[in-house]
Amino acid sequence: MKKMLVVDNHPMLLKVMSNLLDKQGHQVLTALDGLAALEILKTYTPDVIFIDLVMPNISGEKLCRIIRSMPKLKNVFLVILSAIAAEEGASCADYNAHACIAKGPLNKMGEHVLSVLDHLDRGRGDDLQGKIIGKEDIYEREITKELLTSKRHYETTLNHMSEGLLELTLESKIVYANPAALAIIGIPEEMLLSSDFAKLFNTIQYNKIKNLLEEAGDTQRTIALDSPAELNNKLVSLKVIPVKDDDHSHILVILSDISRRKQLEAQLQRAHKMEAVGTLAGGVAHDLNNILSGIVSYPDLILMQIPENSPLRKPIVTMQESGKKAGVIVQDLLTLARRGVATMEVVNINDIITAYLQSPEHQKLQSYHPRVAVETNLEAELLNISGSSVHLTKTFMNLVSNAAEAMINGGKIFISTENCYIDRPISGYDCVEEGDYITLRVSDAGIGISSKDIDRIFEPFYTKKIMGRSGTGLGMAVVWGTVKDHNGYIDVQSIKGKGTTFTLYFPVSRQEIAKEKTLLPMEDYMGKEESILVVDDVKEQREIAFAMLTTLGYTVDTAASGEEAVVYLKEHAVDLIVLDMIMDPGIDGLDTYKQILEIHPGQKAIIASGFSETERVKEAQRLGAGSYVKKPYTLEKIGLAVRDE
After folding, report:
1. Rounded Cα–Cα distance for residues 415 and 400 (Å)
2. Residue 464 pLDDT greater than 60, yes or no
3. Which of 131, 134, 305, 457 has the fewest CB within 10 Å, making it most exposed?
């Protein structure tokens, strides 16, 4: 006696098979579909299984694959009982079966079943492989051919869908999953089929999914989950479609992996936020630059008027230095506003590192953190880059300062540089330009950064420190902005409680570092009463420029707007115009210069601005304007710029 299982969705055929096998003394169980068969197989281990190919709730083909994946059934004798196999031109091997019997007249089919069992009893079951027994008893049916063609068409469509499609029973059992669904869920088909769909989700979402499926079972309309669900570390949207056929009801579930979309939406929101904060920061920086001009520029003029031994010299110099330090904060704001990198030159990161580690600023940092040591490993032949030494120094200073503050109980900051070639993506970037780079790496063994915070550390004003005591919340935003302005990339690796490593990548420059310019005596850039028109919308700026240029020996007049300058120049001629780029309200520096050129073709001008060289500055220079001077400027800086024109 053998234990048998017959799986077919036709009750009459199940009865015929049961009677036939019972008479032969075999123990027989039956199942109406693949799902019911799998339930039986949890507690019943047959010697032979007869399987129909076309069934609801897990097809025969998939059921064969699942059975073969179960260790206790890997050697069970499988028999396909279907006419479809013959009409599809398939073989037993396609289904991992030992034999295929074509459905035909019941008496003939019964003979074929007994013949197969006889081969098995005589140990010759393997002789049946590759054959479809009873093929001669069926005839070709045009309607079947059309149905098979339609089946292949729909299978191709389902297999190439980007959305995941699942078919569930009303009890939430999975009976079909297309390839996209398998990829989203991350479970092999053999293990997924017959499992409870709702149990794929965490305990918090389980009840929500269960309620959604129950609601779908009682309605005819499509229902969508109100918020994304987490599945296999992915965010998925869920749409449930109830389907009611004549003979059975089921539920279709459409899964869409929206992780990438949500990530892009978050990046877009962050970009909008950065843009809004940057716009605000740019406006504040512009106003601060105008205010600082008096603090930074006037001391040069005052110091020229008092003797070397005057007790006033020291507080005046201190005032100027304080203004310059305030200017550094303004530079942070400008970097944040994407307008901060004013001057690009060929530099070497090793020089910047060495200079900072020997600076009073670093000595002050060490006094705050006496138990923190710095260890360097700098590439001896490090290649140069094109950059702003001011911004790169501030970036490095911020990284070292953060590393020191992260090591509450002391430790070592490791600083290294090296040449490298990048030909693959860097974490956090979809696209990286291939080529030669230098890397700057700053590592600490501090408290680390949590996964929740690491995505926000570059946001402006986001800080875990006490505002005003150890930071402004701009430090890492400045690092990000500087790296971006230098066409570089940044990678952050951190383990909570173990430390953090920042790796900065900058593209290499093949140019050599320019020789340092020697300071010129004031006599070398004094004027000879040449006429200059200063155009600036800020009264204090006009007064500062007037005082400085007059001191340098020039004849100076001023205009409070671009329109006023154009009117002035219709009646007068000047040797040079010092032109502010951003003036509000009214026309800006570029439009002013265009109108001036219509009156005085070839008019010489220099551009003054608190921002970096924008495209409008460069366009003015293409039209004939000369050098660009960044506010606030010193007497020497403006003097040299005017002299060069």
Report:
1. 9
2. no
3. 305
* Average predicted confidence (pLDDT) for the chain: 82
Q: Are 354 and 392 in contact (CB under 8 A)?
A: no
Burial class (CB in 10 A: 0-12, 13-18, 19+), 455: middle
Backbone torsions φ then ψ of 374, nearest 5 degrees:
-120, 130
User: What is the DSSP secondary-structure string of 214-245?
Assistant: HHHHT-SS-EE-SS-EEETTEEEEEEEEEEE-
Residues composing the chain:
645
Query: Quick one: CA dihedral 231, 236, 241, 245, positive or negative?
Result: negative
DSSP state string for 10-49: -HHHHHHHHHHHHHTT-EEEEESSHHHHHHHHTT---SEE
Between CA 555 and CA 575 the distance in angstroms is 10
264 Cβ neighbours under 8 A, 6+ residues apart:
none
For residues 286 and 614, give the distance between their C-alpha atoms in angstroms, rounded to a whole number: 14
Structure token digits, residue 628: 């660009």
Looking at 105-109, 274-278, 339-343, 380-384, which range is the least confident one? 339-343
The yes-or-no verdict on residue 26 having pLDDT over 80 is: yes
Looking up tokens 């010299």 gives 313
Please give the single-letter amino acid code of residue 544.
Answer: I
The CATH class of 161-257 is alpha beta
Burial 492-516 (b: 16+ CB within 10 A, else e): bebeeeebbbbbbbbbbbeeeeeee
Helix, strand, coil content of the chain in percent (nearest 5): 45, 20, 35
The three-state secondary structure class of 454 is helix
Q: Do the strands 99-101 and 77-81 form a parallel or antiparallel pair, or are they unpaired? A: parallel
506 to 191, 383, 439, 465, 482: CA distances (angstroms): 48, 10, 7, 29, 10
Domain borders along the chain are 3-142, 161-257, 263-330, 341-509, 522-644
Query: For residue 322, what is the enclosing H or E element?
Result: helix 313-336
* pLDDT above 60 for 472: no
CA nearest neighbour of 79 among 5, 141, 25, 13:
5
Answer CATH for 522-644 from 3.90.1150.10, 3.40.50.2300, 3.40.1400.10, 3.40.50.300: 3.40.50.2300
Report yes or no: 417 and 482 within 8 Å, Cβ to Cβ: no
CA distance 9 to 30: 10
Percent of the chain's residues with pLDDT above 70: 82
Select from 425, 419, 410, 466 the least CA-distant residue to 438. Answer: 419
State how far the Cα of 522 lies from the Cα of 371, in Å rounded to an integer.
47
Give 3-142's CATH code, choosing from 3.40.50.2300, 3.20.80.10, 3.30.70.660, 3.30.70.100: 3.40.50.2300
Q: Is the pLDDT of residue 295 over 70?
A: yes
Per-residue DSSP letter, 199: G
Please give the backbone phi and psi of residue 354, each rounded to the nearest 5 degrees, phi first. -60, -45
Q: Rounded to an integer, what distance in angstroms lies between the CA atom of residue 36 and that of residue 49?
A: 13
**Helices 60-69 and 34-41 meet at what angle, rounded to 10?**
20
pLDDT > 80? residue 260? no
CATH architecture of 341-509: 2-Layer Sandwich (3.30)
Q: How much is the pLDDT for 570?
A: 93
Cα–Cα distance measured from residue 306 to residue 332, given in angstroms and rounded to the nearest whole number = 34
